[in-house]
Target: Acyl-CoA dehydrogenase FadE17
Amino acid sequence: MDFSRLALSGEDQAFLDKARSFLATHMTDEVRQRDRETGDNFDEGLHLAFGAAGYLEAEWTAASDGGMTRLQRRIWTLEKRRVHVPWVTWGTTAMVARAVVKFGSPELVSEVLPKVFSGHVRMCLGYTEPDGGSDIATCKTRAVRDGDSWLINGAKMFTTGAHNCQYVFLITNTDPKARKHKSLTMFLVPLDSPGIEIQGIRTVDGERTNLVYYSDVRVDDKYRLGEVNDGWTVLREPLNVEHGAVQAGRDGLQDTSVMMQQAGLMAEAVDHAAVCVAQADPDGSTVYRLGRSVARMEAALSTPNIFGRVAIAQTMRDISPDLMDLLGAPSALSSGAEYLYRFAPLMGIYGGTLEVFRNMIAEYTLGLGKPDYSAPLADRSTASRNGVT
Ligand SMILES: Cc1cc2nc3c(=O)[nH]c(=O)nc-3n(C[C@H](O)[C@H](O)[C@H](O)COP(=O)(O)OP(=O)(O)OC[C@H]3O[C@@H](n4cnc5c(N)ncnc54)[C@H](O)[C@@H]3O)c2cc1C
Model:
């Protein structure tokens, strides 16, 4: 949205001016360079500055409870994106904090929430395991009750941001004999607990994520969120938010789908390619060829909800090789196209793979029922003729 075309009220204009000047002061080239080097998508100094200035609390809190108004929230989001504020760890923290408020004890809420707002407490997601992440409910990490506490053993893969966080939102199995969605319990585990080991992993786009091992980690029962064996209830809401299965508002003050932040990187790479291609070949066929990528991208950016998420990730995968091809060797420099090419595969994996999302759309939105993975009928009759059952 282009705010220059909107007449902002004096209060909102002052909010915008203050936000711009705050970001110009704190979102420095050093922050950008550090972020590129670490792959953290988080900067502690910047995050604490947001906390001290009240931005974290105001962004998290509903307008009716004194937080930013819907318009101010939109201004703040777009201004942060414009200067590439690292976003991952605040995203997970804000999401988990809602679950803590809903399912945690008052004692836990008062331990955690003020420090979330000051920036000193950050929280990450511990769902995926080395054996698989698409079906979270098959979780093998065990939590066993021991008096007033629990002993946790297992491993979680891709716990992004764990090395910058104080707590992990950890889904565990507390009843291996129960049906899978009735076997889970959620904990908010302090990451400085003895028995936790965090190992860094760098992905192909330079992002840092983690493999986290839990060996006899003792956690007090006060860190349990929700009821024992009812972790799926606690997990469902944050999962829906991450999956983008939440309707956007009709006032245009919200992203059309999740992953718009990442889509912005695609838009920047396409804009950069447009400038280069127009200069090198003002009336040639490359401009026409670039048009195909632009059209694909615009369609993806306008596609709502869960469909938009699939469209953005798929479009990024499809157009980034073409952008690199159009730009030639210089695409490896600062065009954004080469980075997009490395980033695109991950976009179709984290928070759920493209295949899983397509299945979800087919099953729940289009009402086509569960996918049938059995062999097609012709193959089945061949198999039975060959004595295979
Ligand atoms: C950069 C990055 C950051 C991440 N951050 C986090 C994080 O912070 N916390 C966290 O918990 N996880 C995180 N993840 C994990 C991510 O959510 C999982 O990778 C994802 O859910 C897929 O799980 P998997 O990799 O175990 O693949 P698997 O589930 O093993 O799937 C393997 C393949 O089988 C396909 N498949 C699986 N099930 C189905 C199905 N039902 N229908 C059709 N195809 C299917 C998949 O599409 C995939 O191609 C991150 C991943 C990446 C890459």
Notes: The mean pLDDT is 92.
